[in-house]
């Protein structure tokens, strides 16, 4: 039965080949020195390009994009702080998190006291290194564990001389983003977007890059796709803004979309609704996600204008039907934006569960339909057509039978299969299967546009 096929494995089950494969991709993506521009971002797009066809776009520094401007490109070779006897207490070579992203170059000798405003720690999590950025304000700084800083202060005091070196360069270059477009039978598009700018953080956001690539591979393998699927891998905020500025036409064809993030941790799913779904009525993507994740549970939250790139897609001028799917949302797990968001936080089972959930969402979007019954007066005799079990009298009606009855009863041209699945409590796959059998028996006929055609 479809219900069994689609149920998720419990988290303690041994990882399957798919989960292991996604996990290997996270391991490969994790260490790259990603940033909103530069070679770490290009390397990430290149790595994704080995898994799926990715077209890389380079947008020159200074290009106006909506209310923003494409920034200068940042490159960094070396960054460290050393004691007078040459001992390096923070070093970019150990982790890209150790330097504030977009730090301007520095070569100086200063006391610990003078350096302190440039040092970032997490006093409440003294063993973790924070992730900090300063993209749009000229600054420089280092990130380190509070314990390492305390040790340094205890050993050498506030007036010890430290050598500070950041060999970085901000120069005219380009902002890179990657797209993978899988054409379908219609030009109507479904967008999956994942930010690709965080260095050495596993759940946020190597996990979503890997799951998105897995989803694209699975969709490529399908014999037919109703929708055109667009995967966008872009740096957070400025990347989405750049894409929107250059793709007004494609944005106009967008019927459904999801921002993907944090898909590898052990938490359950959280879905953030579209702006329009929150302010007006739930959009098809809002309903499709809730339906596809109904069995395993999903925390559905209204839209709010903070978060990832759903902010840009749901800005009032665009107001696109783009929701956001995560496991644990940003800021709600203790390792968020710290060195603790490492490979141990991500499991093959969680990655695979996320991929399966997204495939179920796609199945709803692809499989929705509106039908009209050809014999609506009384129930048509299903047994005669081989659609009903021969033996009556069971207390419980099997799922497949109930799906037939629901699909027939709501087939008055007003309701879609999405409505049928919502009202009946049956899995969408069971409802789709019933509709296919009724269509084959001539008891249903196609009737006009689907619920999911009304996105946007
Ligand atoms: Zn983040």
Structure summarized in a few sentences:
This protein is an alpha/beta fold and 456 residues long.
3D structure, described in words:
This protein has 456 residues and is of the alpha/beta class. It has three domains: 6-70 and 174-366, Aminopeptidase (3-Layer(aba) Sandwich), CATH 3.40.630; 73-171, 3-Layer(bba) Sandwich (Glucose Oxidase, domain 1), CATH 3.50.30; 369-448, Arc Repressor Mutant, subunit A (Orthogonal Bundle), CATH 1.10.10. The protein has 15 helices and 19 strands. β2 (64-65) and β3 form a beta hairpin. It is elongated and about 90 Å long. It starts with a helix and ends in a 10-residue tail after the last strand. Zinc ion is lined by residues 198, 204, 330, 337. Zinc ion binds at residues 198, 204, 330, 337.
How are the secondary structure elements laid out?
Layout: H1 2-6, H2 17-29, H3 39-49, E1 55-60, E2 64-65, E3 68-69, E4 73-83, E5 88-91, E6 106-111, H4 112-115, E7 119-120, E8 142-143, H5 146-156, E9 161-171, E10 174-182, E11 189-195, H6 202-220, E12 228-234, H7 238-246, H8 248-252, E13 254-260, E14 269-272, H9 275-279, H10 284-292, E15 298-301, H11 310-313, E16 322-326, H12 348-367, E17 370-373, H13 399-409, E18 412-416, H14 417-424, H15 428-440, E19 444-446
Parallel strand pairs: 7-8, 11-12, 11-13, 13-16, 14-15
Antiparallel strand pairs: 1-10, 2-3, 4-5, 4-9, 6-9, 10-12, 14-16, 17-18, 17-19
Helix pairs in contact: 2-6, 2-12, 6-12, 10-12, 13-14, 13-15, 14-15
The structure holds zinc ion (ZN).
Residues 198, 204, 330, 337 line the site of zinc ion (ZN).
């Amino acid at each position: 039965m479809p219900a069994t096929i689609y149920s998720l494995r419990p988290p303690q089950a041994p990882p399957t080949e798919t989960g292991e494969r996604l996990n290997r991709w996270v391991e490969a993506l994790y260490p790259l020195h990603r940033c909103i521009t530069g070679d770490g971002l290009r390397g990430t797009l290149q790595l994704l390009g080995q898994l799926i066809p990715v077209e890389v776009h380079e947008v020159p520094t200074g290009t106006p994009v909506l209310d923003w401007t494409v920034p200068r490109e940042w490159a960094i070779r070396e960054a460290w702080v050393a004691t007078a006897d040459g001992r390096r207490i923070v070093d970019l070579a150990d982790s890209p998190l150790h330097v504030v992203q977009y730090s301007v170059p520095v070569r100086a000798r200063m006391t610990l006291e003078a350096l302190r405003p440039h040092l970032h720690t997490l006093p409440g999590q003294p063993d973790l290194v924070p992730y900090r950025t300063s993209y749009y304000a000229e600054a420089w700084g280092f990130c380190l564990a509070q314990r390492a800083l305390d040790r340094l202060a205890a050993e050498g005091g506030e007036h010890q001389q430290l050598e500070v070196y950041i060999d970085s360069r901000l120069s005219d270059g380009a902002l890179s983003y990657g797209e993978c477009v899988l054409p379908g039978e219609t030009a109507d598009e479904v967008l999956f977007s994942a930010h690709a700018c965080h260095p050495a953080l596993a759940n946020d956001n190597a996990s979503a890059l890997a799951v998105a690539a897995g989803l694209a591979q699975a969709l490529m393998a399908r014999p037919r796709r109703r929708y055109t699927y667009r995967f966008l891998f872009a740096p957070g905020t400025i990347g989405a803004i750049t894409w929107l500025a250059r793709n007004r036409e494609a944005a106009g064809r967008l019927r459904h979309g999801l921002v993907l993030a944090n898909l590898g941790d052990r938490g359950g799913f959280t879905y953030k609704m579209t702006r329009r779904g929150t302010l007006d009525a739930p959009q098809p993507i809002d309903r499709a996600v809730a339906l596809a994740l109904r069995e395993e549970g999903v925390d559905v939250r209204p839209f709010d204008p903070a978060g990832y790139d759903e902010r840009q897609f749901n800005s009032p001028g665009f107001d696109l039907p783009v929701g956001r799917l995560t496991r644990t949302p940003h800021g709600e797990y203790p390792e968020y934006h710290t060195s603790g968001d490492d490979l141990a936080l991500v499991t093959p089972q969680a990655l695979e569960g996320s991929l399966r959930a997204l495939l179920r969402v796609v199945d709803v979007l692809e499989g929705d339909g509106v039908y009209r019954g050809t014999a609506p007066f009384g129930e048509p005799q299903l047994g005669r057509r081989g659609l009903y079990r021969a033996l009556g009298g069971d207390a419980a009606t099997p799922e497949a039978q109930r799906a037939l009855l629901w699909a027939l009863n709501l087939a008055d041209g007003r309701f879609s299969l999405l409505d049928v699945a919502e009202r009946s409590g049956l899995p969408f796959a069971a409802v789709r299967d019933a509709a296919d059998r009724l269509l084959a028996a001539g008891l249903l006929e196609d009737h006009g546009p689907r619920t999911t055609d009304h996105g946007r």
